[in-house]
Every structure is written in structure tokens, then in C-alpha cells.
Specification:
Helix content: 55-70%
Number of strands: 0
Shape: elongated
Strand content: under 5%
Number of domains: 1
Oligomer: single chain
Length: about 130
């Protein structure tokens, strides 16, 4: 099964996106984000949500190593929803960079959808000698 080069790049970009979420979680957790200071109502909730996003993106990137329709559709949905959520926020330079790092792997996923959605061929059973 030949793997297009863009598949590795797609996974790499999803890992990068997960690292950005991890960095965001650490910034919030340290109380360095002005919108979520330590002691605020959403401080811990936002840090945990960002950590969960990190774990989910790492898992999806790992599952995309092989053709997997479920991982493909989950990745497309997660990346698309993430972009939409970012667009509904006040969009600044950091948001635009984040949207771009999310949009690129989504575009590559859509470009290579036939590879991810190909039917899996069951392994042949060895024939018994008669």
C-alpha cells in the first residue's frame, strides 16, 4: 500500500496542532493567560479542556497512520469544528496563525480522502493441505 508523502505531513501538522493546545493548556494552568487568571471560574476547566484536546488530537494523528474511515471522519469533524470555534472568537494575529495550522491538515485530509477511505482487504486464510 503506497502512502502519499502528504499523509506524513498531515499527521505532522496534527501533532503540531496538538502541541499548540498543550502549550495553551500550560499557559492557562500557569495563570499566564489574562482571560483565565488563577482562581477564576474557568481557569481549571479551560486548562483541562485544552489538555483533553491535546490528547484527542495526538490519538487521531496516531490512528491516521493507516487507512481508517472512522479516524478520518473524526479528524475532519474535529478540525472543522475547531476552525469554526476560532472564527467565532475575536480574531487576532494569534487566532489567524492557529486557524492556518488547523486548516492545512484539514485540506490535506480532504485531498487524500480516497487513501483514508479505501476498503480494507481481509487477510487471506492459509489453505489446508488435503
Amino acid at each position: 500500500m503506497n502512502e502519499p508523502r502528504s499523509l506524513r505531513l498531515t499527521r505532522l501538522m496534527i501533532y503540531l496542532n496538538a502541541l499548540l493546545w498543550l502549550l495553551f493548556a500550560l499557559i492557562i494552568g500557569a495563570g499566564a493567560h489574562p482571560s483565565y487568571p488563577i482562581g477564576s471560574a474557568y481557569h481549571l476547566l479551560m486548562a483541562l479542556a485544552a489538555l483533553m484536546g491535546t490528547a484527542f488530537l495526538f490519538a487521531l494523528a496516531w490512528l491516521l497512520r493507516k487507512p481508517n474511515p472512522l479516524a478520518y471522519w473524526a479528524s475532519v469533524a474535529v478540525l472543522a469544528v475547531t476552525i469554526l470555534m476560532a472564527l467565532f472568537d475575536e480574531v487576532g494575529p494569534a487566532d489567524l496563525a492557529f486557524i492556518l495550522t488547523t486548516l492545512l491538515p484539514l485540506a490535506f485530509l480532504i485531498k487524500n480522502r480516497s487513501w483514508y477511505l479505501q476498503p480494507s482487504v481481509p487477510a487471506e486464510k492459509p489453505k489446508r493441505a488435503a
